[in-house]
Amino acid sequence: MASFRNDYSEGAAPEILAALEATNLEQTVGYTEGDPYCERTRALVRELVARPEAMVEFCIGGTSANLICVNGLLRDWEGVICAADAHINTHETGAVGATGRTVLATADSDAFLSVEEAERVWRRQTSTGRHMTLPRLLYLTDATEFGGVWTRGRFDAICDWADEHDCAVYVDGARLANALAAPGADLSLHHIARRAAAFTIGGTKNGLLFGEVVVINHPRLKEAFPYLQKERGGLLAKGRLLGVQFETALKDGLWLRLASHANEMALAIRAGLEELGFTPFSDSTSNQQFFTVPAVTGERLCEAFGCEVFDKLPDGRWVVRFVASWATQPADVEAVLAFAKALG
Amino acid sequence: MASFRNDYSEGAAPEILAALEATNLEQTVGYTEGDPYCERTRALVRELVARPEAMVEFCIGGTSANLICVNGLLRDWEGVICAADAHINTHETGAVGATGRTVLATADSDAFLSVEEAERVWRRQTSTGRHMTLPRLLYLTDATEFGGVWTRGRFDAICDWADEHDCAVYVDGARLANALAAPGADLSLHHIARRAAAFTIGGTKNGLLFGEVVVINHPRLKEAFPYLQKERGGLLAKGRLLGVQFETALKDGLWLRLASHANEMALAIRAGLEELGFTPFSDSTSNQQFFTVPAVTGERLCEAFGCEVFDKLPDGRWVVRFVASWATQPADVEAVLAFAKALG
Amino acid sequence: MASFRNDYSEGAAPEILAALEATNLEQTVGYTEGDPYCERTRALVRELVARPEAMVEFCIGGTSANLICVNGLLRDWEGVICAADAHINTHETGAVGATGRTVLATADSDAFLSVEEAERVWRRQTSTGRHMTLPRLLYLTDATEFGGVWTRGRFDAICDWADEHDCAVYVDGARLANALAAPGADLSLHHIARRAAAFTIGGTKNGLLFGEVVVINHPRLKEAFPYLQKERGGLLAKGRLLGVQFETALKDGLWLRLASHANEMALAIRAGLEELGFTPFSDSTSNQQFFTVPAVTGERLCEAFGCEVFDKLPDGRWVVRFVASWATQPADVEAVLAFAKALG
Amino acid sequence: MASFRNDYSEGAAPEILAALEATNLEQTVGYTEGDPYCERTRALVRELVARPEAMVEFCIGGTSANLICVNGLLRDWEGVICAADAHINTHETGAVGATGRTVLATADSDAFLSVEEAERVWRRQTSTGRHMTLPRLLYLTDATEFGGVWTRGRFDAICDWADEHDCAVYVDGARLANALAAPGADLSLHHIARRAAAFTIGGTKNGLLFGEVVVINHPRLKEAFPYLQKERGGLLAKGRLLGVQFETALKDGLWLRLASHANEMALAIRAGLEELGFTPFSDSTSNQQFFTVPAVTGERLCEAFGCEVFDKLPDGRWVVRFVASWATQPADVEAVLAFAKALG
User: Fold this and answer.
1) What residues make up the domain containing A297?
2) C203, B107 Cβ separation under 8 angstroms
3) Which of chain C's residues have a Cβ under 8 Å away from the Cβ of D235?
4) Are residues D332 and D317 in the same domain?
5) Is the Cβ pair C20, D25 closer than 8 Å?
6) Count of the separate structural domains present in chain C
7) Low-confidence ranges of chain A (pLDDT < 50)
8) Residues with Cβ within 8 Å of residue A91, at least 6 apart in sequence
């Protein structure tokens, strides 16, 4: 049966792979520095986000993008506030910390960074002057680690708070396409691009072999990014591979179609499992769906579909995750539902 | 006309790309952690290097591999001795330094680290106890930054010195295939694998889209590597892309055929230009060839063939570089020679 | 009125200062490397702690000692587990993080690191292999940040847990003398020295102008310490100042008499204030005493005695701290009690 | 016989020690944050340097001051150009590098950073864009590591070059008093304070127990310094000790008298030894004097006077150093000369 372990189990969407093949023998300069694919994609992204002055760069992966951006947006003694389950706090082996900056996690339990918790952490950190790390950045993920999608209202509230507290905002968009394409989503790419100091548009989890676009508004990060990317080992020699892939994905909406498909597949699982009496763990409208299930059910789902166990609760139940991708087929979804039904 | 700027101007060798296509829709786990391609390639590399106990890992690029390995082989206050033109000293924006380790460059001017210079730097650095960075690692590049190939005698001499001075040896093999395939080369893969604490086998410059294999003998680096790779943002989500590419390259000698071809093309340029009276800058038997030329000649070669200017000498002459790749065609070489002849 | 803000408000105990004067014009070599005062003190400490093989070094201050020891006991991707209020987590501006190591705070609210919380954090951090920082060290403070003193039972329990989980134990002894001299204390210096990988004996807060002794059992920290101390800017040129001061403090028990006095003064405040109906915030038997008071009371105490406000509770009350030192006089204590009584 | 090993062999000048005694039992707040001694000294320094807007801070030692200032004046991928023998390059165990910044040493052999060498290193480092560390700071030492004193002309030339190349200038003044008090010195404190982004006024080597004043003009270092100092473990708890000592030293010219005395003693050695036919190694007009001597002479001088061997030349001769301090007596100088005469 198909795996629902994650959205990077397959290679690339066929259109992306075809573009790599078509351009394979062309010679270009390296490092994303001046080849026509990267240059055209930069222009395309600036148009898509409606920020003609933005710097547009390309990273190999999300952790690399995150550590470079957080490092470049902060000085040595400054910190970034994020929710407890933020990717930089839980799944990047201290990558931000290894660049000398501090991750300041809140107690938010739903992966959305709240104004209340940001305020609480900020007050604590600024209560003794130079004796504590100074918060100067907020880290948001959209869609969140639990599949949630930021609304415009929620996003504006945290951005307003950030403005008032001299903090910049960085949006980790590893699954940004899924957020933008989610049913009911009201936060636009233009609006994110208007308020964030920098944000990423993920490709790895949306049908590229690899790659993240980084959009940068912040003047100091514009200066920092090219150097930091090389210094941190994150600059791809054959840089045009990123340009070729993203141009293909972005130029006629392919990226949103891929994400939309992944969302639909995941939401079909959710609808079907809810009908069967399964309990969603989080309010997700995107391509990750979490369910709280008895341990025995969890074990069987994991075995059958490669689900990740996200948590084992004190009451013995498990939180398991289904992730759909651009490559998930309706038949795969049906297989899940049939299997779940058979479980009783 | 074809560019001779570097050996990563094109995409991937056709066999490599075909393997990516053939496996594109398969689902595997990520991060090089357990997919069949990476696992088979690990076994294959252990056989090729005749080190059944070696750890075999996969990096996205050379700078990432270098910074992880040097970091993991040293402690915070220790340093790595290398030749002045070593890649880590000149083209990685302080990447090793950014991980907290110190690069200690010698005055060697031919890109080979010499025993004499290693000794001189070591004596200086150990003359005042804890007041100076302690050298504990040597960094070699094979083929070197100037195309030179380490002989077994030269390699053993520096490894012997390292043993006597409690230093480990790391070999940056970004162009290792070119070194192994160079005419007259007498230093074997087995021997490198026997004496180096760790070394890389480069793919980026030898027909892969990207990727370096890292072979690790050193116990502490074995512990360190998996964590450091993630912490430094160097772990690829779709890890099997590295396994697929390297399995194809390594399983039946393709990697050496690709490198051998690149060497031949470069040596044909060298032979032809020498016949025309050009002066080689370094003694290179591999796919990079350097010539010392009048500035005006340099300008025209750079314009026509995308050569890099490696240095501008005090006497006004330029050092220009031609790099051939797996994709270079005999006609491309002929075009260079015809152009050079026409220059007079 | 006398300040109770902290135990480093004054200069040095008269005996210490006299020793500095007596030796002032002597010439010695620098950096604690071989002068007779440091050498004799090293021997003295080894005797006091009954560890003839221990390395004994001298730091200028506590943050410097902590960052060097935690750095040297961990590798780049490893972390140290500590209570939420641990000094390294709350009052050192990310100093440990700035050396590239990660602080992993538990939810312990009483400044004692508990086995339960250590276990919880350890499980979380080891649940996804290399994707999270690996805990390899526990950080304890004795006396704790809230004045608590570790019992032998509690200490052995956490050390046993550490042994079972391949973690070392580091004890920040900025106020170790106060802990050892506290009424009812049953954890001996010998026992700490037997189980800790390293620990400090604080001088700054116990009558020296400045200085902490570091006692090191751990082989890798023994190698690391001398270099790291210089690399981190923590090596004093006129090193013998540390030897002179600590020899005076340690040679005939002065350090314990100074701490004992400070404890007595603080406990007299506690007894007196409790009698007046004040509510202690923590169970402290050492020279720091915390009380939960109405805000208005808090304000007046702070104004009169320089107390620090440790927290402002949601119910509006304040937590204020009194710290007594070697220099606190009985009359100063009486002044506090009289003032408190007058407050009503 | 008296040691001439260095200028930090003794404790403190009597006036300094007396001031510490006189204030010993006063209670002040810690961390140099608001005690009257530090505050008055700040005002005094601003007057002395004629920079009413300067930030004035206090460090425990020179390495701590250097690593904080260089770190704060640079961003992660930037570097500091200095002469080969600069203290940060040779005697601080990679302390600047450990904060993530890069030391870029020139080939200057006399410890003065020259315009020519700064230019050469700058050209090299800026020749490939983001692939190399970007120089943005110059590090000078006055008096230099070889006792040389910067003239105003030489200083202005390097500062002009720095201005033209968007580099800031940092002056390590560990022996600034000796430079200012040197016979013939024409570079004033006011002028240094006008042109340097930051500089230090050393106390450790000029009669204090320890301590360096840091004078900061650069806006970003003003923001950075307080946090970085704590983060790097360089903030003294009993901060007023620095204020007390420096107020005493600076308020009526004591610091210059102490330095002047040290210079005179050293120059008397130089004059005497030159008369005896000894060969000075460097052109020093301050309190360090270097001589190139036969090895056998070197051995005997080192044995008798604790001289440091600075170098052992290829021709077998040694370079030995005499350092005089505020505490050196004329009789000590006479002893050197008599001894040297007896050597023949």
Assistant:
1) 255-343
2) no
3) 61, 63
4) yes
5) no
6) 2
7) none
8) C128, C131, C132
Give the one of B11, B61, B233 whose C-beta lies nearest to A24's C-beta.
B11
What are the tens digits of pLDDT across the range B66-120?
Answer: 999 999 999 999 999 999 999 999 999 999 999 999 999 999 999 999 999 999 9
Q: Count Cα atoms within 13 angstroms, Cβ side, for C179.
A: 28
Return the partners of chain B (3 or more C-beta pairs < 8 Å). Answer: A, C, D
- In a 13 Å sphere around the CA of A337, the CA atoms on its Cβ side amount to 17
Measure Cα distances from C226 to B51, C56, C100 in Å: 37, 11, 18
CB atoms within 10 A of CB D338: 12
Q: Please give the angle made by the CA atoms of A17, A18 and A23, to the nearest 5 degrees.
A: 100
Q: Nearest CA to A49 among A233, A204, A173, A219?
A: A173
DSSP state of D284: -
Are residue B51 and residue B136 in the same domain, yes or no? yes
C209 reaches D (C-beta below 8 A): yes
- Tell whether B229 is within 8 A of chain C (Cβ): yes
How many Cβ atoms from other residues are within 10 Å of residue D31's Cβ? 21
Rounded to an integer, what distance in angstroms lies between the CA atom of residue C86 and that of residue C138?
11
Residue D115 to residues B56, B107, D157, D162, Cα–Cα distance (Å)? 48, 22, 7, 9
Q: Are strands B168-172 and B198-202 parallel, antiparallel or unpaired?
A: parallel
For residue C201, give both structure tokens: 């004996």
Question: What's the rounded Cα separation, in Å, for the pair B39 and A29?
Answer: 33
Same domain, C148 and C232: yes
Count CA within 13 A, CB hemisphere, residue B327: 26
Q: Give B13's Cβ-side CA count (13 Å radius).
A: 26
| Nearest chain D Cα distance for residue A131, angstroms | 7
Task: Name the nearest CA neighbour of D77 among A100, B95, A69, B229.
Answer: B95
State the alpha helices, DSSP H only, in C91-165. Answer: 95-98, 115-125, 152-164
Does B128 contact chain A (CB < 8 Å)?
no
Whether residue B133 is found in the same domain as residue B265: no
Q: What is the pLDDT of residues D18-76, one digit of tens each?
A: 999 999 999 999 999 999 999 999 999 999 999 999 999 999 999 999 999 999 999 99
Considering only CB atoms, which chain D residues are within 8 Å of A131? 230
Alpha helices in B165-209 (DSSP H): 176-180, 189-195
Both structure tokens of A182: 């989610």
Chains in touch with A (3+ beta-carbon pairs under 8 Å) read B, C, D
In a structure prediction context, what are the per-residue pLDDT tens digits for chain C, which is 344 residues long?
Answer: 899 999 999 999 999 999 999 999 999 999 999 999 999 999 999 999 999 999 999 999 999 999 999 999 999 999 999 999 999 999 999 999 999 999 999 999 999 999 999 999 999 999 999 999 999 999 999 999 999 999 999 999 999 999 999 999 999 999 999 999 999 999 999 999 999 999 999 999 999 999 999 999 999 999 999 999 999 999 999 999 999 999 999 999 999 999 999 999 999 999 999 999 999 999 999 999 999 999 999 999 999 999 999 999 999 999 999 999 999 999 999 999 999 999 97
Rounded (5°) CA angle A62-A66-A71: 155
Residues of D in contact with A224 (CB under 8 A): 75-77
Residues in chain A within 8 Å Cβ distance of B38? none
What are the tokens at C55?
């390395």
Q: Which of A189, A85, A203, A188 is nearest to A139 (CA)?
A: A85
* Mutation for A interface: C89, C93, C125, most A CBs within 10 A: C93
Instruction: Give domain status of residue C36, yes or no.
Output: yes
Distance between A70 CA and the closest CA of chain C, angstroms: 15
Q: Is residue A150 part of a domain?
A: yes
Sheet with C318-323: list strands edge to edge.
C279-280, C288-293, C318-323, C308-312
**What's the CATH code of the domain at A298?**
3.90.1150.10
